Amino acid sequence: MARPSRSPLAGALGRIEVATWRAINSAYMHMALLATLLIFVLLGGLLPQVTPDIAPSSRYYQEWRGQLRAPWGAAADVLERLGLFQIFQSWPFHFTMAIVAIVAILRLLSLWIPPWVPPPPYKVSVRHVILPYDEAGKETTILIALKSVGLRVVRQLSYAGFKYAAAQRVGLARYAPGLVYLGILTLLLASLIESRFGWAGPRLDLALGETCPLGDESGLAVRLEQIDLLPWPDGTWRRFDSHLSLIQNAGVVRQFVLGLNRRATYQGLSVYQLGFGPAVRVSAQKEPGQSLKIQQMVGKMPAQHALRLRFSGRQQEQSLTIPDADLIVRLVYYPSFPPASSSERTLHVQLLRGSTGEIEAEQFLAENGQMRAGDVKVNIAFEYSVTLRAEREPGLPLAAFGGGLVLLGLVGHFLWPPRELWIIIYPEAQRCVGQLIVSQHEANSPWFRTLTAHLAGETHG
Questions:
Q1: Which tens digit of pLDDT belongs to each residue from 13-67?
Q2: What pLDDT, in 10s, does the model give residues 365-409?
Q3: Helix H or strand E encompassing 416
Q4: Architecture in CATH of 120-174+416-461
C-alpha cells in the first residue's frame, strides 16, 4: 500500500516537533540546565548581591557600593559592569528560569498525560518480533506481555497500514517521577511570589541596649537585651545567642532568642541573626566617683554616662569626647595585631587633651582595662554586637512544599523509573509482528528481557 504524500512544510514541522520533544526529554538537556542554574546560584552565594528594593541611583546603593571597595578594591567595578552583583535580577537568569519552567511543564505532561507521550529518543534499541497469529492474536499477545511488566498502551494511531503504539507504566507508580518536575514548578512559583511580594530589610548592627527600626512600613523596631556566649573548651564558639525584644508603639510585642541558623517570626515577618562582631563599652569617672557624660564626635546621639561602640571590617576608628574633662577618646580596633605578637583582638586607645591635641595616655588593650588622664578614669569593656536582618517571605511555605515534592520525586524516580516502550505493528499480510523500540540504556533491563520472553515465537535483534 502506498503511503499518502505529505507536504514539505508538514514534514518539516513534524521533524521540528520530534526534535523538540527529543531535546526536552534528553538527559543532556537536563544536565545543561541544572549546571547553568548551579553556576548562577554559586555566583549569587559567593558574591554580595544588592537587594531589589535598592535602586542603582539611590543613596543607599552608593553606600552599599562603597562598602564593597574595602574587600574587593578595583575588582568591584569590573564585577559591577558584568552584572555579577545583581545576578538574580539579570535577564540571563530569568531566561534560564523560563526555559527550566517550559521543560518542566512539557516533561510533566509527557509523564502524566498519555497524548503527550514523547517520541523515541535518538539512541534506541530495536527488537523485531515474529508471532504466528492473526492480527487480533498478535495484539492480544502483546497486551498480555505488556501487562506482565506493568505497562499498558497509552497512545496509538494508524498510518499507511502500520499501527503505532506507545506504552508506559500503569498505576500510581507512573506519577512518582513526575513529582520532580511538579516540585520544580512549585519552587519557581515560590521564587516568583518572593520576588513580587517579598521584602528584605537592611542589615542592622546592634550593641547591648540599642534599639533600631526594622525598616518596613509596620513601625516595628528591635532592641538587643542580652547576649549569651557558649564556648567550646578550646575557646571557639559553640553558640552565640541574642535575646531580643520586638517593639511597636513604644511597647514590647514579642521577645525571642536568636542564634545562627535560627529565625524568629511575627505576623509574617522573619528576623534572622546573620552574625556577630566586636563592640566596646566606654564610661568615665572623675574622682571621687563623679560620673562624666560621653558623646560621639560624629553623629547625633546625645551625651550619655556610658556609650557602646561597634566595629566592623579589618580596622575601624571611633572618636568620643568628654566635654566636662576636655578629653577626646580615640579608639582603633584591630581584629588581630601582629606587632604585639598576638592573634587576638586588640584595641588601641588614646586619651587626648581636647584644647591642645596632646596625648595624655595611650595603651593597647586585649581585654577590659582602665586608663587615667589626670583625675579622670576611662573604663573600656569588651563586648559584642549582633547583625540582624528582617524579611518578609511569603513564598517560603510554598518553597518548602516544592522541595518536599522534588525529594519525593527523586525517591520515586529511583524506585519506579519511567518505562516507555514504542511499538510498530506491520500490516496483516506480513508475518512479522513488527518492532519493539526502547531507549538504548533500557535494552538490557530486566523488565524488557521479561517482556520479550513472554512473547511467543522467535525474537531476534
A1: 566 766 777 777 777 787 788 788 888 878 877 777 776 656 666 666 666 666 6
A2: 888 889 988 889 999 998 888 888 888 888 889 999 999 999 999
A3: none
A4: 2-Layer Sandwich (3.30)
C-alpha cell at 123: 539512541
Contact 200, 193 (CB under 8 A): no
Can you spell out the DSSP letters for 81-126?
A: HTTTTSGGGSHHHHHHHHHHHHHHHHHHHHHH-GGGPPPP-SSEEE
**Whole-number CA gyration radius for the chain:** 35
Residues 382 and 403: their CA atoms lie apart, in Å, by 43
Q: Reduce the DSSP state of residue 284 to 3 states and report it.
A: strand
Closest CA to 156 of 115, 111, 201: 115
The domain limits of the chain are: 120-174+416-461, 204-392
**Do 434 and 135 touch, CB atoms closer than 8 A?**
no
CA dihedral 65, 336, 307, 203 (to 10 degrees): 30
Please report which confidence band the pLDDT of residue 330 belongs to, taking 50, 70 and 90 as the band edges. very high
Q: d(Cα 420, Cα 122) in Å, to the nearest integer?
A: 14
CB contact set of 369 (below 8 Å; sequence gap of 6+): 349, 363, 379, 380
Percent of the chain residues topping a pLDDT of 70:
82
* pLDDT tens digit sequence for 160-219: 778 888 888 888 888 898 999 999 999 999 988 888 888 877 778 888 888 888 877 778
Identity of residue 359 = I
Q: For residue 189, what pLDDT is reported?
A: 92
